[in-house]
């Protein structure tokens, strides 16, 4: 009888940590990707899946330990978004768009209309402002956590947040 092949010592630890992180952060990562990209829900789900697949592959390598898994997941999400933009640049030419053709839309509630308006203006903000607002208000990160993820001080995150909110307020229609 041959001895069993040695198992990695921390494989069950890695797996349980990963599964716990998935349960804890999948919604936050999804929201982050959705609001950063303005993608369709299916695309945001696909990108979210890619974040966790890359994270699992990294954990399997076991090269360097991850101190803050939440911040690591958001960093991976940033890279996944950047990779998607590089691979999938817009392919529709403006001359191919018929201005007379309007998309069919269903009636929306006032709250969903407000959210649509907010999303459109959020997407119109410069990338750094959109990212900091997404982290702070959609993902409920503190300035310290957002700073760790972005490689900035908490003070710098607070300043960017303030500037982004001021710019967003100017863009929103008066009600």
Automatic annotation (TrEMBL):
- Origin: domain of life: Bacteria
Alphabetical GO biological process terms: DNA-templated transcription initiation
Keywords attached to this entry: DNA-binding, Sigma factor, Transcription, Transcription regulation
- Gene Ontology molecular-function annotations: DNA binding; sigma factor activity
Boundaries of every RNA polymerase sigma-70 region domain copy: 22-89, 124-170
Statement: the UniProt record of this protein carries the keyword Transcription = yes
- What residues form the membrane-spanning segments? none
State the family it belongs to.
Answer: Belongs to the sigma-70 factor family. ECF subfamily.
Name the record gives this protein: RNA polymerase sigma factor
């Amino acid at each position: 009888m041959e001895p069993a092949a040695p198992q990695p010592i921390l494989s069950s630890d890695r797996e349980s940590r990963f599964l716990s992180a998935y349960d804890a952060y999948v919604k936050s990562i999804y929201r982050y990707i959705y609001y950063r990209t303005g993608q369709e829900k299916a695309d945001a789900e696909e990108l979210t899946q890619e974040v966790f697949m890359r994270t699992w592959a990294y954990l399997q390598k076991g090269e360097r330990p991850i101190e803050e898994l939440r911040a690591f997941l958001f960093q991976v999400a940033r890279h996944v978004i950047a990779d998607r933009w590089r691979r999938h640049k817009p392919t529709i030419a403006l001359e191919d768009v018929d201005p007379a053709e309007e998309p069919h839309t269903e009636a929306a509630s006032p709250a969903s209309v407000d959210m649509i308006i907010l999303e459109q203006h959020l997407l119109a903000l410069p990338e750094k402002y959109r990212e900091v607002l997404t982290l702070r208000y959609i993902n409920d990160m503190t300035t310290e956590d957002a700073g760790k993820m972005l490689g900035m001080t908490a003070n710098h995150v607070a300043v960017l947040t303030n500037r982004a909110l001021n710019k967003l307020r100017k863009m929103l229609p008066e009600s």
